[in-house]
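Onboarding guide, step 5: your first structure request.
Type a short instruction followed by the sequence, for example:

Predict the 3D structure of this protein.
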Amino acid sequence: MKSRAAWLGAGVVALAVGTTACQDGDRSRQDTAERNTPGQQVEQAQLQSEKAFDDARDAQKEASSQQREAARAQEDVQHKQQELQEAQAKAQKESQEAQASQQQAQARTQQAQSVAQQAQASALDAQRRTQQNFATQQQQASNENATANQRVATQDAQQQQAANQNAATQQAAIAQNSRAAPAPGQQISGDVLSASAQEVLVSQRGEPQLRLKVGPTTQVKVDGRAASAADIQEGAQIRASYTTDASSGEPEALSIDATSRAQPVAPAPAESGESSPGVPRSP
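The system replies with structure tokens like these:
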């Protein structure tokens, strides 16, 4: 725009100069014509006209040259404006790309922070579960140890109780054996009124005389064979040795030898005078 204004200004100046020169030439020619003859005046007018045409052509050439320069300057300005627009577009594009890259970087940073927080939370949860499992295992181990100790203590107590019972049983057996020793003269013979696995009632001449307690150490024989006191029948004859318990005062049998009750050999004789089969009649 400035080059075009300069070109227009230069054209105006050239026209003004040409106009002034023509006016000065006209005045000069007029002055000369007033002094010269008509022929001279015509010749001078032609010369002045040719000179004016020459000046006009020179001015036109100058104006054309300035116009070309103004066009080149305008092209330069347009080129510079285009370069400026391209540079601005490029700068705007790069700015947008930079903003997009920054937004992506921020999004990745937030995502990384979220992943890190989740990983930290998972690690804390795993640590908490590990501690709980460890505490549970310790509690179970403690409970198992307590149960094992209690079981061992119970077994020890049971073994001690069994040992005490065995010792008491042995002492009782020793005391019973010492009490079971037969005393001289403690013998009885008679008939059996009743007999069971626990006692035998002995009778002499039909009257109850002695109730003998039967224990696990009592030796019982029936008809010379080992038997139980319950195998003795009522009415059987026995010979027994016994001792008296010092604590209870009851007689306890040491040995019993029983003989089964005898069966009748033959029936009583007949009163009708008939003889029994196989027996001869009296005369």
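Each response can be followed by summary notes, for example: The longest helix spans residues 38-180.
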